[in-house]
UniProtKB/TrEMBL annotation:
This is Serine hydrolase domain-containing protein. Residues 20-326 form the Beta-lactamase-related domain. Transmembrane segments: none annotated. The keyword Hydrolase applies. Keywords: Hydrolase. Residues 351-433 form the DUF7586 domain.
Length: 453
């Protein structure tokens, strides 16, 4: 563990203590992850008469969905699944209105499918088999036009779990264990509880008494929220979401999972969803992870890849944890131990690239091109208004846009007869060294009279 300062630890623990006391939680754990390591752990309350530890298991609910999504993305990267495939290509037998939705829509909760499965509330009653679930999903399962809006669907992730099982030839849980948990060292994440584990409770709203909540195997619905885990394992998961992906997924694939596919609060855009990952914006941070709730349990993991920091909590109560707990812990960390910027160091120059740096003009709009220390180039507007992007070098000498309007677009350096750069061609947009340089091939030409009063 790379520990936080004592003063920081005290402030973090006090925030957790207030949450446990005011929320009337039987037990509550929290942790901070920095640079891939558990930097702080705190706990309040009791599990079987003792304070919980980083190895105490709690049910983590819908955080399960993110692990299922990782296996789906592995299948995509292997070429076995296309995100635009209709789910019926991989799970035959689905009815009209269900089978047509795409894998990407299921991953991002934009399929329009019902939030819950047919029959009784699946979180508190024995589950049905995958065959029974597929047969039970009829036209009324579709609640919205696919792709129209964000609509959280536990049913959707049940189907993704079945997709995984049919491709791997083992249960979704076995696939998660072999392909994610074991490689990441998450040995204490299981489908059913193992000792020591917390028991799930509901706390009476008007009295300080507890009611045990049921626990069972959800079968077909299990991919939506079956797993149990520990704070220590969830710390490793937070590091994974932040980019420490090991050999499980390429960092670029996890970055794709963190990209917003939809938002759930309209213009405010404080919450949204990527591919199997929930997203949030808070206090200048852009967070990725997932919340989790099952009868008797609450849990959440958030990670900020730009800062390589993560936070998490687990609790054994059906309700009572405030939405602001984890963002408050991040704020405390920022206040007490703000991250120092990396030291600037010079990097080896490339004469062929150095001559491209400096001002360029798209028509009369001023841009500047600079080399990035990690490689690649960045084309930014002067003054902040307009389109900008980073570009990565390609084997054929072109550059690929990485973000914004130019994401996926090609930047070419066009050279004159003497080999010097004449202009930049960015998907038909021509950038010249002076505004509307008549020596370059500006689309539509340049007025022969030139600039005038």
């Amino acid at each position: 563990m790379s520990p936080v300062l004592e003063s920081t630890a005290r402030a973090l623990l006090r925030r957790v203590a207030v949450e446990q006391s005011q929320g009337r939680l039987p037990s509550l754990t929290a942790a901070v992850v920095r640079d891939g390591e558990l930097a702080w752990f705190g706990a309040r309350g009791r599990v079987e008469g003792a304070a919980p530890t980083p190895l105490t298991q709690y049910r983590i609910g819908s955080i399960t969905k993110s692990l299922v999504a990782v296996v789906v993305m592995r299948l995509r990267d292997e070429g076995r699944v296309d995100l635009l495939d209709p789910v019926s290509k991989h799970v035959p037998g689905l009815g009209i209105g269900v089978g047509e939705v795409t894998v990407a829509q299921l991953l991002s909760h934009t399929s329009g499918l019902s939030a819950e499965s047919p029959g009784q509330w699946w979180e508190r009653t024995p589950g049905m088999s995958a065959e029974e679930l597929v047969a039970a999903l009829g036209p009324d399962t579709a609640k919205h036009r696919p792709g129209r809006r964000y609509h959280y669907s536990n049913v959707g992730f049940a189907l993704l779990g079945e997709l995984v099982a049919r491709h791997r030839g083992v249960s979704w849980a076995r696939a998660v264990q072999e392909e994610i948990l074991r490689p990441l060292g998450m040995r204490d994440t299981t489908t059913r509880p193992r000792a020591p584990h917390a028991h799930g409770y509901a706390v009476h709203p008007w009295a300080d008494v507890l009611l045990p909540e049921p626990e069972h195997d959800a079968l077909a619905m299990a991919p939506a929220g079956q797993l149990w885990s520990t704070p220590a394992d969830l710390a490793r998961w937070a590091a994974f979401v932040a980019g420490d992906t090991g050999d499980v997924l390429a960092p670029a694939t996890v970055a794709e999972m963190r990209e917003p596919a939809t938002v759930d609060d309209g213009d405010a855009w404080t919450g949204g969803y990527g591919l199997g990952l929930q997203l949030a914006r808070a206090n200048g941070r852009r967070l990725a992870g997932h919340t989790g709730s099952m009868p008797g349990f609450l849990a959440t993991v958030w990670a900020d890849p730009s800062d390589r920091v993560g936070v998490l909590f687990t609790a054994n109560s059906t309700s009572g944890v405030s939405r602001g707990l984890l963002t408050d812990l991040l704020a405390i960390l920022d206040q007490h131990e703000p991250r120092l910027p990396e030291e600037w160091v010079p990097v080896a120059d490339d004469a062929g690239l150095l001559e491209l740096t400096g001002p360029w003009y798209w028509g009369p709009s001023a841009y500047v091109l600079r080399l990035l220390p990690e490689g690649g180039v960045c084309l930014n507007t002067v003054g902040g208004a307009g389109r900008a992007s980073r570009f990565a070098a390609q084997a054929d000498g072109t550059w690929l846009g990485l973000e914004g309007y130019y994401a996926g677009e090609t930047l070419r350096v066009v050279r004159g007869p003497d080999g010097s750069p004449s202009h930049l061609d960015l998907n038909t947009f021509v950038f010249t060294r002076t505004p509307y340089d008549p020596r370059a091939k500006v689309p539509g030409g340049v007025d022969e009279g030139g600039w005038r009063s």
